[in-house]
Design goal:
Four copies of one chain form a homotetramer.
Chain A (H helix, E strand, L loop, with lengths): L4 H17 L7 H8 L3 H7 L3 H26 L4 H18 L17 H23 L8 H18 L6 H15 L5
Helix pairs in contact in A: 1-2, 1-4, 2-3, 4-5, 4-6, 5-6, 5-7, 5-8, 6-7, 7-8
The first copy, chain A, binds a DNA duplex (21 and 21 nucleotides) through helix 2 and helix 3.
Amino acid sequence: MKEDSAKEQRILDTAAELFSRQPFHKVLLSDVARAAAVGKGTLYLYFKSKDDLYFAVLFREFSTLIDSMRRFLDENALGPGEQLAGVVRILAEHFHTTSFNMELLGSVITCPVTDEWKQLRADLWDLFARIIRRGIDKGVFRDEAPDLTARYISGLVRAVCLFAPANADLDSVCRHASGFVLRGLALER
Amino acid sequence: MKEDSAKEQRILDTAAELFSRQPFHKVLLSDVARAAAVGKGTLYLYFKSKDDLYFAVLFREFSTLIDSMRRFLDENALGPGEQLAGVVRILAEHFHTTSFNMELLGSVITCPVTDEWKQLRADLWDLFARIIRRGIDKGVFRDEAPDLTARYISGLVRAVCLFAPANADLDSVCRHASGFVLRGLALER
Amino acid sequence: MKEDSAKEQRILDTAAELFSRQPFHKVLLSDVARAAAVGKGTLYLYFKSKDDLYFAVLFREFSTLIDSMRRFLDENALGPGEQLAGVVRILAEHFHTTSFNMELLGSVITCPVTDEWKQLRADLWDLFARIIRRGIDKGVFRDEAPDLTARYISGLVRAVCLFAPANADLDSVCRHASGFVLRGLALER
Amino acid sequence: MKEDSAKEQRILDTAAELFSRQPFHKVLLSDVARAAAVGKGTLYLYFKSKDDLYFAVLFREFSTLIDSMRRFLDENALGPGEQLAGVVRILAEHFHTTSFNMELLGSVITCPVTDEWKQLRADLWDLFARIIRRGIDKGVFRDEAPDLTARYISGLVRAVCLFAPANADLDSVCRHASGFVLRGLALER
DNA sequence: AATGAATGAGATTTCATTCAT
DNA sequence: AATGAATGAAATCTCATTCAT
């Protein structure tokens, strides 16, 4: 059925763009089709339904994000604090460019609970948890429940981006968010 | 138009319940009407449109929340740290009982930009900012941008509640969230 | 939900008309709606789906037919031969006015196998079987398997109507069909 | 256009199978293509349209049937009664194996009125009419309108097969149908 | 000749909103 | 004020047909 993966990507790109600008029910599949320059039926060649498309967008967005965080960590030999600041920055950029309409992990309630999704979520949390634990091991962080903290760092960053003053530049928002997270993990001295 | 305020409240209660369990587009006005035990047309006596109802729910929910935080602060003579822990707890309870589907400040979901809404938002942020500034004045907090921090504390708490493990009890989640925020505001010693 | 039974009947009338002139997939619900002078959504107030509407038409058509045959039998004190000729005539008129596109019993395969439908089918067959058995009892018919015969008399009449020459008048077609059926049940003398 | 006649036959076989099990609009060309193990586009090399394919199936089915009846008559020197019983049996077998969804002569389902089709229909009717007339000539049948009778014998047999009890075996159904037809043509003695 | 991805007209269905009662 | 049947615009989705490969 699928053959032209480039087309699938184009559809996903377009849909991502539209879903990020409007709530789900205001995004029309005819708009997606037109904007992606494909026939309406073509959408259904690649995606079972509007919901399916929506979650595919979310999934890809999410995967990409995790990949780029991983790459950042792999390609730079940094200390835990710098690592955390770095991934927070990547997250913030993601939320800044991509939409806030898309809850990063999908609403927990609505988004599919397939193994794929569970894995993705676990991956994100694991990524943060590793950084935190490494920091603890190195004696620079302190956290009684790293797994819990890991779970909501992304939500925290989202909140920062979402509610930052309209005129705030990304840099200062990031700096503030990172600072906050880092102090939250700071050793009591 | 409006006359029977009890009925209006019943509609709001019902709608709050439903909107909190499902995304906007899955909540049908016929469901709301049935659950509220009123005719579908009656909804339109009290609310201009589905959007209007949605935002009315949000507004009331939000106002109630702010009120209860204010009351908590007024009725208890506490230090800044305890104040913060207290309002975090109230927030967490709110997110726990009420829905995660309703973005608290809905700033992106293009919620109305009337003066009413601006005021409400300002009130919430101001509430947090005051606590933080009071802490700074008292020499127990440290924050370079209290207004910025104030803006995303609610988002942080939401994230914590949203992504806490299903089996986590509210108490430990609150404790963790408060601890995190408080350390984020801690003086460097 | 339903209140206006007259409207439901109008929809059924219209649909019967259209389904009788064209095969299922050429009958558009927008045509039905327009012809019945109701909104497209109204159809769904009374019928769950296009299939549902189709079978409702069939069911009513069928019930009406059985009723008129029953009434004919009740209101006229006739001998078995005359009874048979009469109901054949009624059947033929039905097929003549109503459509041939609608298989009287619905395609056995496709049409719902609810109790309602089973009952209706049983009623028709019973009606014929009674006449035949009465004829046997009175010594004017002969049939080794009245129940089997009863099952296909309606199909036979349909076939006669369906394949009669275009210019044949209803009377002669009926006469021939009745004659054929009656001889088929005739005593060997 | 057509070249590979074996492939064409395979398509026809497959389509016959599918059309016989479901009504026209439930048979998808993609199903036909998949089941026939050809590409969807290939169907269009052999048939102009879905309708065209449908009628081609019908035509072939019908021709085969007439051929086998003719062969039966040619290869066996039988009296009119035996001839009739024989062709009824062939018809019944046809309806039993092939579908009831395909109206044999499809006269209403606006099947093409080409000379080919007129001829085919005429052939079937003629075949029956000849048998009946031969019976009349031989003094064993009696029928005032053999042409009319000829027209609906096939419909009668179809009805018998269609509505016979599910557990009835073909033999007894045939015997009953033949008996009915033969008595319908019986001399009044 | 053969394919099946792509198409888009048009099908069914939904649901916020209206309005006669 | 209250209703819910009626509406129809607009949404999702289907599928016969085309066409580039």
